[in-house]
Design a protein that fits this description.
single chain; 128 residues; alpha/beta; 2,3-Dihydroxybiphenyl 1,2-Dioxygenase, domain 1; four-stranded mixed β-sheet; 2 helices; 34% strand; globular; Glyas_Bleomycin-R_OHBP_Dase; Anthracycline_SecMetBiosynth; VOC domain-containing protein
């Protein structure tokens, strides 16, 4: 079998730009109820890493002053297995917006929705 076909996952990391890293951290920490880990990546780059156990995919918020919000183009989907409706409520309570209410996928594939975070990024949430 071709090695490329055996890869368990293609996405290995994601970065969500943040005009204001403190505000973005507050939003995502409120959304998921877990702290993000801030790290300096050189003298001019600060990130805040989403919690993960070392397996699977994770990512970060990256301080990106002056970067326009990403409302079009690529979209990252975050795990909403804690309850899609709960996370949508938390997103709004933390200053975000629901851009697309929950949509049911074909049987066995769950549901998804889109939010706009406090930085203007369009982010997907997926509940299996």
């Amino acid at each position: 079998m071709d090695k490329a076909l055996r890869q368990p996952q293609r996405v290995v990391w994601f970065e969500i730009p943040a005009l204001d890293l403190d505000r973005a951290c507050s939003f995502y920490e409120h959304l998921f109820g877990e702290p993000l880990k801030r790290e300096a990546m050189g003298p001019d780059v600060t990130i805040a890493v989403f919690p993960y156990d070392g397996t699977g995919v994770s990512g970060c918020l990256q301080h990106a002053p002056g970067v326009a919000p990403a409302l079009t183009g690529s979209k990252v989907y975050l795990n909403a297995d804690a309850g899609l409706d709960t996370l949508l409520g938390r997103a709004v309570a933390a200053g975000g917006k629901v851009a697309l209410p929950p949509v049911a996928l074909p049987e066995g594939m769950g549901r998804f929705a889109h939010i706009v975070d406090t930085e203007g990024n369009l982010v997907g949430l997926h509940e299996a």
